[in-house]
Amino acid sequence: MIEKIFLFIMFLSVISVDSVLAADCAEVGKKVSSRQGGTLTRSTPIVRDGENMCVVVIVMPAHNGKKPRRVEVVVPAD
């Protein structure tokens, strides 16, 4: 019984860390999209080489009759 409780607590701690990282990535995505002048489409947390990173997808507005561009950048989650 104690093992099940311990595993449940570990599971909850992992979930809370991921949700905090996801919230941080949402803020990072908003900053990146406003800096680049595009619209934030997606901001996903990842771990690369042991570091927390965010994959940010932005749609840049069209110019001179061209189609909008999709830009994907990977930035630190800090």
Summarize the structure in words.
With 78 residues, this protein is α+β, with helices and mostly antiparallel strands. It has one domain (2-76). It has one helix and three strands; from the N terminus they run αβββ. The chain has one helix at 2-36; strands at 39-48, 51-60, 69-76. Strands 1-2-3 form a three-stranded antiparallel beta sheet. Strand 1 (39-48) and strand 2 form a beta hairpin. The longest helix has 35 residues, at 2-36. The mean pLDDT is 81. Residues 1-22 form the signal peptide. Keywords: Signal.
Integer average pLDDT: 81
Q: How far is the N terminus from the C terminus?
A: 38 Å
Flag low-confidence runs: none
**Mind telling me the C-alpha Rg?**
17 Å
What is the chain-wise order of helices and strands?
Answer: HEEE
Number of strands: 3
How are the elements arranged and paired?
Elements: H1 2-36, E1 39-48, E2 51-60, E3 69-76
Brief characterization of the structure:
This protein is α+β, with helices and mostly antiparallel strands and 78 residues long. The chain is 45% helix and 36% strand.
Question: Can you tag this structure with a few keywords?
Answer:
78 residues, alpha+beta, three-stranded antiparallel beta sheet, 1 helix, 45% helix
